[in-house]
Amino acid sequence: MPPPHPETWLRVTPEGLHCLPGGFTVDPVRPVERAVVTHGHADHARPGHRAVLATPETLAIMRARMGEGRAGESQQPIRPGEEVTHNGVRIRLAPAGHVLGSAQVCLEWKGSRVVVSGDYKRARDPTCAPFEPVPCDVFVTEATFGLPIFRHPPADGEVAKLLRSVALFPERTHVVGCYALGKCQRLIALLREAGWDRPIHLHGALMGLCRLYEELGVRLGDLRPATVAEKAALRGAIVLAPPSAVADRWARRLAEPVVAVASGWMRVRQRARLRGVELPLVISDHADWAELNRTVDEVGAPEVWVTHGRDDALIHAMAGRGIRGRALHLIGLGDDEEDAAPGGGGDAGEHAAAAEGATA
Ligand SMILES: [Zn+2]
């Protein structure tokens, strides 16, 4: 008997992508009996499930963000490469290169294999294991930056830009907006690689996850709280803060702040301008257009399902290469963290991008 088509055993339900024979849902947006969670961002990892299977790092991140009780009544850690079988469905996790602990969920049932990639990127990240392409029959991908204008430059070049500005304005405080899980720690690690060995100051909202990364073996160097009261001491310093704090009074109380934001959306110049960002840094933890297309080709799946983001352009491009694309329109993904287009909804961003054309 030929292997069953993935459409027959993997369905879109209001909870998310549900595996019928396995009885579990990947990244469910509502509380379920059994969840498999790709990574700790709040739009993928939600509270209130009974059983949660994920990497040990993702489970630790969930406990830190939600509290012990809400991060799943029972937690089952599996490491990349380990395999568990649930109701005849083989489950394996493979690194996704997105944030610490992020994993693709590889499912196999009766000889039919689906890989649900969650969020991923292909660019180097010193704080997590690199994405590993897994051949499959159906590849399930995001498309947050699924338009040809989205091309993320090498992150070390963006970090060099920040350090040049710090050298140029030694009296000013550089405050960089970045998301608490993943982006913040990657930025710190890249600064350390670039030779910045002075303390890095953190807004209170970023401290907890940095400490957790360190407990999980990611070294971040000398981190100190950014106390606005001691603004003189922060002259010439680099301060990291959540994007929301960068936009408000908190940042303006620093010494002549240079406002930077690290996000893939900084590619859209108009968006940076609207938010008063003086120094946009295009650093993303999501695949850009070229990475999405390269990944789809590498996994060799004849069929690709797109969970969220700019699915139409990607599906059109894949069709030209003989790959069948299908938009899943999963609800509830891309509402949080970097996916959430800062300063406006996704559509506004697309229009801004279209109006501007490809930015430099
Ligand atoms: Zn994510």
TrEMBL record:
Keyword Nuclease tagged: yes
Compositional bias (Low complexity): 351-360
Protein name: Ligase-associated DNA damage response exonuclease
NCBIfam families linked to this entry: Xnuc_lig_assoc
Stretches for region Disordered: 338-360
Keyword Iron in annotation: no
InterPro entries given in the database record: MBL (IPR050698), Metallo-B-lactamas (IPR001279), Rhodanese-like_dom (IPR001763), RibonucZ/Hydroxyglut_hydro (IPR036866), Xnuc_lig_assoc (IPR026360)
Pfam family, one: Lactamase_B
PANTHER family listed in its UniProt record: BLL1145 PROTEIN, CLEAVAGE AND POLYADENYLATION SPECIFICITY FACTOR FAMILY MEMBER
